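The record is passed on directly below:
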Amino acid sequence: MTMAILAAFIPGSYGGRALDKAKSLGYIEYPPKEAEQLAVVRCSQCHSLDKVTKYCFRCGPPLIVVVHNMKAFVTLWQKKFPEQQVPALTDAEAVAIAQVWSALIGNWEDGWNKNDLIKLLENDKALLKLLDTPIKARKIEAALAGKSAPGTYKEVFDDIQQPKKEQEKK
């Protein structure tokens, strides 16, 4: 809050940059719309959005794990190709991006063993904290619930288990 007030008194684009930096460092939460824009901009640096939106539960682990792997990959990329400017994902950006894609593409964390997800997140404190947060309590993911990215074939693990649940009732 203090950063937002201070940024209001900083002239020109410097105030906006100060707010952006405060959000990327986790001092101010990303509003859902800004988080969505962040996800599109950051992920489209390396992937086509069509590729991102086609990711599904058959492709691999939940998106929270994919975002963790992208954080690690960007770090390796920076070491191998220092001349190419791909900025590292901060923890706050990773948490926001994971929520955006989980909301817009699908969240199948419930379909995975939680201990497996914890191992795959390799002590990534920010994403482990997100994993421990109920989906309905994730502000960005909850705000974007019911929406989907253009071109997405959205599948949620509950939808996949629906026939199984109906069979159990019989």
Summary: Residues 31-169 form one domain. The longest helix spans residues 63-80.
